[in-house]
Amino acid sequence: MGSGSWSASDWTTYASTAKTKSTSAIFTSRTMSTNLNPKDVTVRESRDSVDNPNSTALIVALDVTGSMGIVADNLTKEGLGVLFQEVLDRKPITDPHIMFMGVGDAAYDSAPLQVSQFEADNRVIEQLNELYLEKGGGGNNTESYDLPWYFASQHTSIDCFEKRNKKGYLFTVGDEFVPAGLTKHQIQTIFGYTPQSDLDAKTLYEMACKMYNVFHVIVEEGSCYRHYGSRVTEDWRDFMGQNVLNLSDHTKLSEVIVSAIQVREGADKEMVAKSWSGTTSLVVAHAIKGMSTSVAPRGATTGVVRL
Helix/strand/coil (H, E, C) string of 223-237? Predict the structure, then answer.
């Protein structure tokens, strides 16, 4: 997937109507869509095309438990347009192909992982709006942010990496602690097959880092972060170092994602933060302050690992 081109005018037309709707009126799914069920997916592809000859895969995996639905709501009303247009205008990467995921809790939820197609045009709006906001989760102070790592490493095929040895980008977004990993039973339930062993979080993260620059965005407005504060940040920084982005305003998620890509691609982080106006500049500066320019994430090596 990944043909077509983003239309800013079509987005403006859509957003003018979406802004007046409630979250439930936009996200109408009351169970996981069969189109997004990972059990039915062998592979999601990001392929070069005439419209996008130098495609770059970009995955945004959203926590859809509890109050985290506010992030998806803002994206579908405002943030998605910012994300696409700023990547196209600032050009930190070429020809973006965007996939959205919905993330829940593999131990408790009926839909712990949902996966869209990679899209390069306004069809991504439909993919985002098809997410089921289950609002589940459990009492374990984490969600299954490792499911996107597993899916990306085992069930995506991306031309940016396979043709050009250029990694894609994967951002998980949520407010809770680092997950513990996935059991064989959980993988069997979600994907329909059983791996040889349980997989801990470090292994899953390193698997994803083979093909993707992997980041985690901590939503500071979330209930878990509000309760535990810096402990959540410390847990993630101990786990993945500088690839942790603290988001103080969920409405600026897109700006933070674009900025992190810019810095990873070699831009000066102070200049990147100053390139945004008003309070957005402060939100971005707070998020990317721990990043270093052009440093590969821990566990990043070349080659593809499939289980």
Answer: HHHHHHCHHHHHHHH
41 class by beta-carbon count within 10 Å (0-12 exposed, 13-18 middle, 19+ buried): middle
> What does the block give as tokens for 247?
């988001």
Q: Which two tokens stand for residue 206?
A: 């390193």
Note the pTM of the prediction, 2 decimals: 0.94
Give the residue among 149, 144, 146 at the shortest CA–CA distance from 207: 149
Q: How far is CA 205 from the centre of its chain?
A: 14
If one counts every other C-beta atom within 10 angstroms of the C-beta of residue 299, the result is 15
Q: Which burial class, exposed, middle or buried, applies to 82 when counting CB atoms under 10 A from its CB (0-12, 13-18, 19+)?
A: buried
Per-residue pLDDT reduced to its tens digit, 116-153? 999 999 999 999 999 999 998 877 889 999 999 999 99
pLDDT for res 286: 98
222, 68 contact by CB (below 8 A): yes
pLDDT confidence of 294, banded at 50, 70, 90?
Answer: low
